[in-house]
Amino acid sequence: MNNGIKSLKEIYRDYFPIGAAVAVEDLCDEGQKNLLLEHFNSLTAENAMKFERIHPEEKNFVFENSDKIVEFAIKNNMKIRGHTFVWHNQTPDWVFKDNSGNRVSRELLIERLRLHINALCEHYRGKVYAWDVVNEAVEDKEDHLFRESEWYQIIGEEYIELAFRIAREADPYAQLYYNDYNNEKPYKLEKTYKLLKELLDKGTPIDGIGIQGHWDIHDSELFDNLKRAIELYASLGIKIQITELDVSMFAFNDHRRDIVAPSREMLEVQAQVYKKLFEIFRSYKDVITSVTFWGISDKHTWKDNFPVKNRKDWPLLFDEEQKPKPAFFSVTDFN
Question: Does 321 participate in catalysis according to the annotation?
Answer without folding.
Answer: no
